[in-house]
Amino acid sequence: MLDYQWKIFWANLDPTKDSEQSGIRPVIIISVEESNLFLPIIAVLPLTSFKPGRKIYPTEVFLLK
Question: How confident is the model at residue 1 (pLDDT cuts 50, 70, 90)?
């Protein structure tokens, strides 16, 4: 069985709606493998870079390299 959950991949997030991030961006796959194998949709979390001086909000997680 393939194991993609919790791995980072590049994904094309177009088309977008309103203020959603667009373009090719790194994402973490969060959906479970059983659903990844049988469903046409995969749940992902888009990642973004950190800029010094930017506030980290309670809903955000800072990942170290």
Answer: low
